[in-house]
Amino acid sequence: MTVSWLFVVFCVATATAATALYDRNLAYWSPYADHPQLAVNTKALEAHHLKEFQRRQTTENKFDDNHYPTFYGAHFGTSPTVWSGGINFTHSVASGDPFDTSVLIWTRAFPLGAGPDQSVPVCVSYDVFSSPGMQGKPVQSDQAFTSWDVDFTVKFEVKGLKPDTQYSYVFSDCTNPATTSPVGKTRTLPSPNTPANTVNGGKPLTLAVFSCSQFQTGWFNAYGVAAHNTSADIFVHLGDYIYESVGNGAAIGRAVLGRELATIHDYRQRYAQYRTDSSLLAAHLNAPWINVWVYYYQSNQVLKLKIASNSRMITSLQVADNTWKAGSTNSNDSSAGCAFSASGACFTDRKLAAVRAYHEWIPVRQVETTDLLRIWRNFQIGKLLDLTMLDTRQYDRDVTDVDYNHVIASLADIPDRSLMGAAQEKWFSDTLIESQNRGAIWRIVGQQIVFTQILLNGVFADLDDWDGYRMNRQRILDHLHANKIRNTIILSGDSHANWVSDLAHPNDTTTYDPVTGKGSIAVEFAGTAVTSPSPFGAGMFTNTTSHTTYPKSPRRHASPDQPDLCADRRPEPRHSFRGFFTLTIDTKQANATYYAMSNVGTPNLGSFVSATFTVNAGEDRLARPVAGGVVAAGVLKNGS
Ligand SMILES: *[C@@H]1O[C@H](CO)[C@@H](O)[C@H](O)[C@H]1NC(C)=O
Ligand SMILES: *[C@@H]1O[C@H](CO)[C@@H](O)[C@H](O)[C@H]1NC(C)=O
Ligand SMILES: *[C@@H]1O[C@H](CO)[C@@H](O)[C@H](O)[C@H]1NC(C)=O
Ligand SMILES: *[C@@H]1O[C@H](CO)[C@@H](O)[C@H](O)[C@H]1NC(C)=O
Ligand SMILES: *[C@@H]1O[C@H](CO)[C@@H](O)[C@H](O)[C@H]1NC(C)=O
Ligand SMILES: *[C@@H]1O[C@H](CO)[C@@H](O)[C@H](O)[C@H]1NC(C)=O
Question: Are 171 and 235 in a shared domain?
């Protein structure tokens, strides 16, 4: 009786422990646990590994298991064997998406020696310490498997941590604890109810904000400057972390491996190469990141596959009658995508590969595994702020300007047209209200594309931005205005240029005063690229020494929400003034500091501050004079 009872307990415990070792590695869930093409079935994987091991046990040439000890305490036949031939932590470590008591940590544990064995998992341990020097006992430790199936990536959620606390962490080889990874630094957020003036131990909180990091067009010095020369607490990336294209980077020592991305192998190889840049590695090692998607850019530079609805595309795989392919411009890509891709891959397959590799390589949380491809999510950072990350690129987005479909200008004002998709738009409105109701001082919104209206010579500069979805933008401005939601700051990427703006209703000259900023509803800080060259400039920046050409245009005067600063581009050298900005926040002010890189043609940490801006709490506008009236690069609208 007792014996069989024990036996039952033993079996149950074993079964639980077994897949748990796989399941604790979130890379296997990448990104959607219930979708066969978008996650690894860990039960099946374990069964496969066991079967392979048993086969080796029973072959006539008896398998030599020196390198494959059984792992946990089950009896031999049901115990996975693990690799013990040594591990190389090839891509250092990273962390991301901190909450108040948990954070994600990441590494890659590549088996040493000849080609990796596809039938044996690798076992990785981690230890988290509350001291930077890893003195004393670890506050959290665990183990998990990784394998060939997820490119040997390892992604743990470390739970049970203290809020608003700095941690160090290290990974090691379970079978040889002397083999360790570099030591990473990370932190948790203050819990939602922490009083605003005690957040971050009472010091201002600094976000470093990046977008558009293209390997072949420059060295990622911006990450290095932020990691080494600012006190950034959290790194926020607003998209285009990798590029699909290959380009020609050889001249600056940045030749890209592989081809234009199509398969899972291609994507993994690209992430692996990007993560050799020492500045990027330093930035991941130093602080947690909060990312939103890359998008997809064809190397022919013509077809921007910023396609309307990623989620609908994926959904379309699950329904028999694929309406997505039937009638819209987007169907061009799903029905005939094979024909358009330089690599010959169908667009849909490519998208699946991209999403899977993203979740393997980036320490990003799956907010809701039942919502296909949702990455929009919110971080409550004490009562100081909410950091609300949107997906304005992929999630249920109506058709965008794909360069050959010249209909967008005529669609941009259609009321039903949505950039965010109904679910995300409602969630965003509710999140803003909830943030205000819970008494958070600031609402910082991270998203991919430029929000403000930008007219170049009377024409919208980029209908792929919010200018192509004007009613969606209007609904957000109306929502902020009607509900008296204060202290909202929108952060944007994508455009490869800096644009700093008061946000008012476009062309509103009655309630908004562009000189004082009175009547402004919110503020936008849009940041330039880490390396990607600026497509803007012709007509607006041909003469950056002249601060008069820009405000002289009467049309632009007629558009009060035109940016107040168009900073940072100098015609030559081409790679000058790529960069990033920081946002430093306390209860009274949010200060944006724009950093310009001296030269991204070589790895270096040369940079200067091109402009600084202040937003005073309660004012919803840029403090005047904007940027103190002086910028070191760029053009101020009403500036000196
Ligand atoms: C470990 O990986 C790094 C980065 O890919 C590589 O430079 C190094 O040669 C590898 N070490 C061994 C022993 O394979
Ligand atoms: C930036 O950090 C690097 C590395 O710590 C250091 O060598 C350099 O002097 C710093 N630059 C500035 C301007 O502080
Ligand atoms: C589909 O895309 C191709 C370019 O790749 C373009 O020539 C064609 O007009 C597009 N068709 C539609 C219906 O938009
Ligand atoms: C603002 O005015 C410009 C120039 O007259 C016009 O092109 C644009 O459509 C207007 N914007 C909105 C949102 O109405
Ligand atoms: C640039 O602007 C400055 C100041 O207005 C002017 O003196 C100069 O001639 C301009 N240069 C060009 C190339 O237009
Ligand atoms: C913002 O900048 C102002 C002006 O330089 C400074 O007085 C204030 O302390 C700064 N606040 C923060 C949070 O950095």
Answer: no
Distance CA 84, CA 87 (A): 8
- Ligand nearest the Cα of residue 385 is 6
Q: Looking at the structure, tell me whether residues 158 and 226 fall in a common domain.
A: no
User: Looking at the CA of 203, which ligand is closest?
Assistant: 6
Ligand nearest to the CA of 442: 6
Residues 208 and 183 occupy one common structural domain: no
Atom in ligand 5 nearest the alpha carbon of residue 549? 5
Q: Which ligand is nearest to the CA of 593?
A: 6
**Tell me, what's the pLDDT at 439?**
98
Give the CA distances from residue 271 to residues 215, 494, 638, in Å, rounded to whole numbers and listed in that order: 10, 19, 42
d(CA 135, CA 287): 20
For residue 112, the ligand 1 atom closest to its alpha carbon is 14
CA 545 to ligand 5 centroid distance, Å: 7
The one-letter amino acid code at 233 reads: D
Whether 16 maps to a domain, the answer reads no
Q: Is residue 11 part of a domain?
A: no
Which residues span the domain enclosing 611?
A: 196-629
Distance 538 CA to ligand 3 centre (A): 28
Phi, psi of 105 (to 5 degrees): -125, 150
**For 202, phi and psi rounded to 5 degrees?**
90, -5
Q: Please give the distance, rounded to the nearest whole angstrom, from the Cα atom of residue 543 to the centre of ligand 5.
A: 6
Low-confidence stretches of the chain (pLDDT < 50) are 1-16, 60, 63, 65-67, 73-77, 295-340, 537-562, 567-576, 639-640
> Residue 288 C-alpha to ligand 1 middle, in angstroms?
24
Answer whether 507 contacts ligand 4 (Cβ < 6 A).
yes
3-class state of residue 313 by DSSP:
helix
Nearest residue CA, atom 7 of ligand 5? 546
Residue matched to tokens 């169907």: 331
How many angstroms does the Cα of residue 404 sit away from the middle of ligand 3? Answer: 6
**CB under 6 Å to ligand 6: residues?**
204, 584, 586, 589, 591, 614
Give the Cα separation of 224 and 284 in Å (integer): 10
Shortest-distance Cα residue to atom 6 of ligand 5: 546
Query: What is the pLDDT at residue 576?
Result: 42
Q: How many CB atoms lie within 10 A of CB 76?
A: 10
| Same domain assignment for residues 499 and 591 | yes
pLDDT per position as a tens digit, 123-180: 999 999 998 888 899 999 999 999 999 999 999 999 999 999 999 999 999 989 999 9
Q: What would the pLDDT profile of 52-94 be if each residue is shown by its tens digit? A: 777 766 654 554 544 455 555 434 445 567 888 899 999 999 9
Q: For position 20, what pLDDT does the model report?
A: 85
